[in-house]
Structure formats: C-alpha cells, structure tokens
Amino acid sequence: FFNIGERRNYEWMAKWILDPKSTRASVHMPKLLHGPNAMEDAKAMATFLSDRTPEHQQAIAEVTKRSEVTAGREQPADQERKPIFERLHCIGCHDALGGGQSDPAKISLKHVAQKFSDGRLAEFLSEPEKHFTWIRMPNFKLSAAEAKELAGWLLKRADKADGKPAPRDMAILERGQQLVRDLGCLNCHAGKIANNFSTVGLAKLAKEAKGCLAEKRDEKSKAPDFGFGAKERDALVTFLKTDFAALSRHSPLEFAARETRLLNCAACHGQIDLIPPLDVLGGKLKPEWAVSFLGGEPFKVRADKHPKGEPWVEARMPAFKSRAQLMGESMAMQQGYSPKTSPEGPIDEDAAKVGHRMLGKDNGLSCVSCHAVNDLPALEVFESEGPNLGLTSARLLKPYFFRWLRNPLAIDPQTKMPAYFEDGKSVLTDYYEGDGEKQINALYEYIRQGEKMAAPATGQ
Questions:
Q1: The dihedral of CA 287, 293, 297, 301: what is its sign?
Q2: pLDDT tens per residue, the chain (460 residues)?
Q3: Greatest pairwise CA separation for the chain in angstroms
Q4: In the CATH hierarchy, which fold is given to the domain comprising 349-452?
C-alpha cells in the first residue's frame, strides 16, 4: 500500500474496492463491502489509501526507492510504424483497445487512464513487479522511451479519467483507515498499520459451510464474497477437511503446469514464428540457463535483424523474476530431467577437431552459412538465421542436441534446418565413415568449447 495514492487514481480505487470483478472477472480479490453503505465505505477506503501526508505514509509502509524511470506525463504516441503494443504481442493477454468486440478471456486495458495517476503508467510498464513481486504482468525490459511510447499509445485509446481528487475530510479518511484494518485488507496487502481482522478457524468454516463458503449469501453477512461456484465451494470444503499438509508440499510438476497456464505462456509459445512451443523447453534447455533467462538476464541467440534490415522476430521474451528459479527447475523435471545439469567429463579434443572441420564450408556441412560462431557472423543468411553456435553449449541439454540433429523437423515442423543424418548416416564419409552418431558427438564436443571455439573454415 505504500504510496499507492500516488500510483492509482482515487475514483478507480473506489470502484475496484467496491467490486473488483466488475473491472476484471478473473481477479481473486473478493468483494468485501455489502449493503446500502458499500459505496460510501469504498470511497472512504479509497480516501484513506489516497492520503499522501508524511504521517500517513510513515504509518502505512516502509520507504522504498522511486523508480529510475522519469514519471513525467505520458504523451499520446503517434502511429508512424507498427505500434509497440503489436510488436510486443500484448494482444496475447490483453484486448486491443478500440479493436471491436472485447474478449472476456483477456484483460481489458480500457481503464488504464482511470487507474494510473499521471506519469505512473510508464513507470509501471518499466517495472511491473516493483510493488508486487509475484504479479503476473511480466517485465519486458523496456527502455524509458519504449515505456513512454507504450503508455502513450494506451492512454490515447483508453477511456478518459475524470481526474476527481479524493476528499480531504478527516472523518472520511479515519473511517477508511478503520475499514482497511477491520476487513482483512492487510491479510494480503503489506502495510504497517494494525490488522484488526479476525474470523473463525478453517476447521469450523468447513464444518458449517458458512461465510464465504455459504451456498446462499446472507445479506447481513460481513464475509468476503469471492464469487465461488458450486464446484469451487465443494472443492474447498473437501480440502478443509484434510490436514492441510498439501499447503506446504512443493510439487515441481504442478508448479510448472500451473504457472505456465496462469502466465498464459501459450499465447506466444507455439503461436509466433521463431518462438518454440512450451512442451519441448523442459527437455531442451539446461535448467541453470533457463533460470537465468527467465529472470531477465540479457541474451541474444541471433542477430537482431536479417540482411534486409527487418527484425527476425519482433516479440520479446519478458522476465518473470520471482518465478525464474522454480520455473526453470520445474520445467526440466516435467520432462524427467534433474533440476541441476549433471557435470560432464573433459572435452574429447580429437572429436572436437573433427567437429570443427564438419562445421565449416570446406568438406563440411557449411553450418556457418546460417549460424554465427561467436564473433564470426553467419555467412549466407536467406530466410532464417540460426542461433549462434558459440552459445549452444550453455543452453542445450546433450540429449536434445542429439535429437535435434537427427531429425530437426520432427521437433519443429516449421524449422528451416535441414536433416543431415537420415538413417544414422551422413554424406560426409571422410569422418567416421559417415557414422551419424559419431559425427553428431564430434559436433557436440566442438560446440562444448563455447566462446573458445576456433572459427571454422569459411571457404574464403
């Protein structure tokens, strides 16, 4: 709650507090206010949260650093090229503003001008996780200019805010503070004011099925309204009759499945060219590298643009910092791999020398035509540039490397990578008499050298 009055508009907060699901149907936050005074109470709570006096801020939370992004007023962006909203594929999770019929499965953005205070939308887009580390909105690592461009594009199309300030009536503010303390807001939201919320124990709740689990709501009840359906109520009542051990049990498989669903990863993976499907990643990537990548570490697998000057892929992999460690390890375990890559023995130098020759253009497979090797750029890129092979060893699990070279199209039907080892043989009979498995191993041993790989023959 710290400084939330600087980041959110008063009118929007009042509307959200009154009925969160009226703004976003999928939200978990319950409706806490009921009866004839609900609107008045919502406005009182919004008034309290909007108060910016030093005394209030000292009471409500610890001091945090302001974002490095300048919080100036965003200007509506002019559309001269493809909008950044489209380039980042925001449509995967959000409705396109002004784009016709809304999709109830997606999060609407029409309220962003009403929700965010002046200058704060760009700040949020630059660091969504700043005030809530487990937010589902990922960090796209936007530059300050990109954040302002996206904020301006959204504000130009969103419903306009009325700009009505919170009332300065001390009685209303104190009423709002009391409601925030009493209604359980501080069970989920951080704040330093006292939490006065109390309720019955879970065992009694399951036995009586009252309050938030009541089949028919009592209008006089002060219990939060989560909007549970019959199946959800039955599932909760059944669970509450257990010993609750499942709450402290970590299942990597369930975690990976749940988070990839909640984060809507499939909106991009398997849907956009050059973005791999999800089901192969756990058996493809070394978990340590996946953790780093999911956490936002910079990494460029290929050049940004092809020779014609256009980008290879406009979509951008965002960061999920809070989930990176668990996600990277859990995805590997989903596919039957260890959460830690097993150490390998020393590089087979003789095999690596064979792999070095095979990669080049002179009596080799001419891999350097499409693939860069560290600082050596790809030589003859046409439709698709492959990944930089100097980075491959850090990224790929050994079993995946072998599966991929045996038959790339079996893994990715859209790939431009040809199959060189049909029926376990290759056309390069000078190396291991054309034995495909031995040749793939030679390529693997060479690529294990990473940034120390000697440049292969370029035919020049």
A1: positive
A2: 888 888 899 999 999 999 999 888 888 899 999 888 999 999 999 999 988 655 555 544 433 333 334 334 454 444 456 789 988 999 899 988 876 667 878 898 999 999 999 889 999 999 999 999 999 999 999 999 999 999 999 999 999 988 788 888 899 999 999 999 999 999 999 888 899 998 888 878 777 778 888 888 887 888 899 999 999 999 998 998 888 898 888 899 999 999 999 999 999 998 887 788 888 899 999 999 999 999 998 777 766 665 555 566 677 889 999 999 999 999 999 999 999 999 999 999 999 999 999 999 999 999 999 999 999 988 888 777 888 999 999 999 999 999 999 999 999 888 889 999 999 999 999 999 999 999 999 999 999 999 999 999 887 7
A3: 89
A4: Cytochrome Bc1 Complex; Chain D, domain 2 (1.10.760)
Residue of 263, 378, 362 lying closest to 322 (CA atoms): 263
Q: Identity (one letter) of the amino acid at 317?
A: M
Single-letter amino acid code for the residue at 253: L
Ramachandran sector of residue 118 (left: φ over 0; alpha: ψ -120 to 50; beta: rest): beta
Burial 87-116 (b: 16+ CB within 10 A, else e): ebbbebbbbbbeeeeeeeebbbbbbbbbbb
Residue 145's φ and ψ, nearest 5 degrees, are: -65, -40
d(CA 110, CA 99): 11
Q: Number of helices (H) and strands (E), helices first, in the chain?
A: 20, 0
**Gap between the Cα atoms of 7 and 118, Å rounded:** 8
d(CA 455, CA 357): 10
What's the CA gap between 191 and 213, in Å, rounded? 27
Domain ranges of the chain: 4-157, 200-246, 252-334, 349-452
Residue 454 Cα distances to 98, 386, 441, angstroms: 54, 18, 17
Give buried/exposed letters for 256-274 (b at 16+ CB in 10 A, else e).
Answer: beebbeebbbebbbeeeee
Q: Please, what is the angle between helix 38-50 and helix 10-18, to 10°? A: 140
Q: Buried b vs exposed e over 319-354: b needs ≥16 C-beta within 10 Å?
A: bbbebbbbbbbbbbbbbebebeeeeeeebbeebbeb
CA–CA distance, 139 with 136 (Å, rounded to integer):
9
**Kind and range of the H or E element at 410?**
helix 408-411
Mark residue 450 as left, alpha or beta (left: phi above 0; alpha: psi -120 to 50; beta: remaining).
Answer: left
